[in-house]
Amino acid sequence: MKKKNKVLLLGWDAADWKIMGPLLAKGQMPALKKLIDRGVYGNMATMNPPYSPMLWSTVATGKTPDKHGVLGFLELMPDMKGVHPVTVNSRKSRAIWNILHNQGFKSNLVGWWPSFPAEPINGVVVTDRFQKVSMDPKAKNPIVSGTIHPESLVKEMSDLRLFPYEITEAHILPFMPKAKNIDQKNDKGLRAFAKIMAENVSIHSAATYTMQNSEWDFMAVYYDLIDHFCHAFMKFHPPKLNPVPQDLYEIYKDCVNSAYRFQDMMLERTLELVSEDTTVIIMSDHGYESDHKRILEMPKYQAAPSLEHRQFGMFVAAGPNIKTNEKIFGLGLIDVAPTLLHMFDLPIGKDMDGKVALDIFKETSPPNYIESWEHIEGDFGESKNTDYKDFLNDQETMEQLIELGYIDRPDEKIENSIVKVKCDLKHNLARVYLGKKDYDKSKAILLELIEEKDPIDLIPYYMDLLAISFSESDYDKAEIYLNELRTRDKKFKINTYFSEAKILMHKGHIDKALKLLIEAKNKKPNAQVWYEIGKIYLQIGDYSNAKNAFEESLKLEVDNAKFHNALAVTLIRLEHFEEAAEHALTSIELVKYFPEAHYTLGEALEKLGDTENAKKAYQTAAKLKPKTHHRAEKAIENIESQNKFEDKINSTNHKDQIIVVSGLPRSGTSLMMQMLHKGGKTVLTDSNRKADISNPKGYFEYDPVMSLHKDNTWLHKAQNKSVKVVAPLLKFLDPQYRYKVIFMNRDLHEVVQSQQKMIGKDTETLPIRLFESYKKHLSLVETWKNKEPGVELIYINYKDVLSNTREVTSKVSSFLGEDLDLDAMIGCVDTSLYRNKS
Q: Parallel, antiparallel, or unpaired for β 83-85 and 107-110?
């Protein structure tokens, strides 16, 4: 067999660029810096829910948890008579080391979570039970059966473990220079430190020993140092949070940064032990909140500490065929296993959810595929150990999970604990389906759980059902679930203003929704509330305020892809196309498989005149989400036909242009027609519709316009004249003519309110479907304008006509290229007719 380059995979749980960035800049993580300089780096997108055993199993298998079977921190015993920390027996899919074993490669595995009991692969396995020892100096800590494979290594590796009671001031003071000030009777900080430090030093010792004393092709090592330090000490990390006592802040403020620096020191030693033909990959399963989103008081529900896990972890790779000093984008946890298989020239299972990260390689070859590695017969070194007698009571692991807040202390009645774990595993599966947007499967599980659980524990289920209802635009169900949450929100503090605002928007109470979110923002600013405010402004066409809101959201959360995309959409509406393209690109860099961002990029590039790349962006959007991106395919057609339109327009006499006044009904089109008429332009009207109380100065309409979608042969009569055409009919204008379009914009709230008043309906509650329909029409105007080279269009704001009349008349005159009687136009404006104000 051809000799393969080695691959070393290092898992740094919760490592985050936000913290590493400043440390790298100060030269405080030199080993990682050297690796970055000779390799690639980027974000690593996590999954929902962000629970480490589930995530690291996804890394190992390339599959989502519903497929690989690891669904939480605990599992049920085979006899269904107890619970214990999750083991490798929960995993139903073959991991990368199983596949490599089958293909004749040697693999080492150290500390992976979960990996106990050890699988009998060709290589060395030191499981996640190896480092778990008692805090009690008097306790015996034997290495139980199944901890190490092969068993023959147990004796020589037993002395590699460091015990918490062996931690000295030499270990402590670099992390906590003021450790002497700790009140050890009431403050358990040193206890947590000693346990985390001892366990990770034990893992590192086992890893370096194994690297030096065995042959291997692939090796994976997992460290929980950063994650556990963050759970224990992030509340004290700078900048100081107001509720944190100053004396405790002074003691613990350096702990998190010191953990990163210590992790880098271990990396330095590891790199000394690998040869130049080794590809080194370092990655984390998620990030960790280190700023205003830190939580000082965790809510009391399952795995609440994961609320501080950020959506992006980190990824670094360097080696013989890895690009040099280059940032890469769009990686996800599911991509790691397929990429590793490709590095060993092995096929990827079509049932894997990830893709090969080809962007990281200097030289690439097309990936090979098989249906599934699960269907291949042969020896895969899989665990056959279902005898749980030796590890029924994994008390140390249980205690640590309890201390970290990931699980509750088991009920004294074992049957209650069994029921709770069953429900937690089902709930985690429901959240996996929710993350995959398989709402039907998620709902079915959640509704089943509601029938099973004690009422105090139902809140997380209703929260997920609420989220699904919004995703499916089922606002009636959403309101039911929101009211259910309100009745139960006694023990838990749940922010419901986003949900309330969405329901208010659906009912047409736009002002109330906006007021609610602004009040929430004033109480406690956060990125999400700014984003929701921006979405409302964008929806009602207030692009300036939408832009400000999205910019505020990005100040607080700069690496949120949907925030960047929303800002890009807004900037397109404001005709800031270059800036829009930059934010759309940033969104794609953060989340590569984001179809909406690719479409937005296409819009921005098309408006910048880069039709070739715009077409590529639209094609990507359509490929990623074909069922809902017919508009992308339509945009591609428009680009391809653009030259044909241009040829036709170039032969047209521009002197015979048609001036079109357009907009939604009640947006000020009649006023603009009147102004053009008084300014000296001939208007095309039959005066059949008479003035009334709603339009006392006349409508200036032309009856054939109403049938424009059936017959546009009369348009030659409109040449050198102005004619009023409502927005939905613009697309039926004959492209053989040249058009100057004055499009009247008005607050959508006011437009609908004015229409409701005109037809004698309630103006307080707005029909949301009509509102949404009009919003769609406005977006289609942009699409139509961009595909028609014979169309020039300006937007005129109705409020500006009333308050900045002279400026507007000058703008219109300049746009038309004609000398109009501006004073006569100004004289048309009667502000007393502005009666439906938002």
A: unpaired
